[in-house]
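#struct-help
A.M.: can someone run this one for me? Single chain, 260 residues.
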Amino acid sequence: MSQAAAAVRYSDQEPLVKVYVWEWPVRLTHWLNAITIWVLSVTGVYMGYPLLLATGEASHHFLMGWAKLIHYYAAIVFTLSVLSRILWMVRGNRFASWRYFIPWGKVRFKAIGPTLGYYLFRLRTPPGIVGHNPLAGIFYTFMFILFLVQIGTGMAMYAASAHYDSPVKFFETLLPLFGGLQTARFIHHGIMWLIWAFFVHHVYSAILMSQVEPTATMESIFSGYKFVPRDDVIHPGSRFHEEVAARRKTWRTPKEDKKE
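D.P.: on it. Structure tokens below:
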């Protein structure tokens, strides 16, 4: 990012304030999700396409057994992490609240359009929202729905081959909801690639915002703190609307063009 672009958002007249945004449960579940998604993807792909083969009796090597065991325990950690994060949407601070995922309220709802305009390079003003901006919150909500479906299909598939007295056997009742075992497997595999597509975009967006809007976005997921202009804390998203209002003054209707 050029210094001129940075000056659009931060100047000497805008002192930065330190804000505790991401509490430790949010940061913990974030990294647990990231790590377990990697582990689940690698072991899941191996289970579907076992490229590593060993000669001799399979019982002497147990490659597939280890892959399934690691996949199973990683799935447990992932499930507990996702459920904990959903719980923290109710118990956590305002930045972790479900209101920052679903655009609940007039201010956040009206900020969806300008946020999209910024990402499409139609506005120069970055989001100016301390926590999740409303557009990101919508996508995160969609991702959590995919997480829950992924957990459901995974548990249903595991239950199909579980021992008859295993408590996991209960989740076999989910198979009809997903259209049977093969359809559940197809959904499970497809969602994995959707999650990875989001993962790539998420990393790109985080790096981009760290460069354009130097509020310690990347660092905050480790420390929990961001350094933001005071106005962004008191009036989140106000800069968006100021720029939109300024641009509208320069817009002309077709009738105005004809008059000239």
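A.M.: thanks! The chain has eleven helices and two strands.
D.P.: also worth noting: Residues 3-23+93-259 form one domain.
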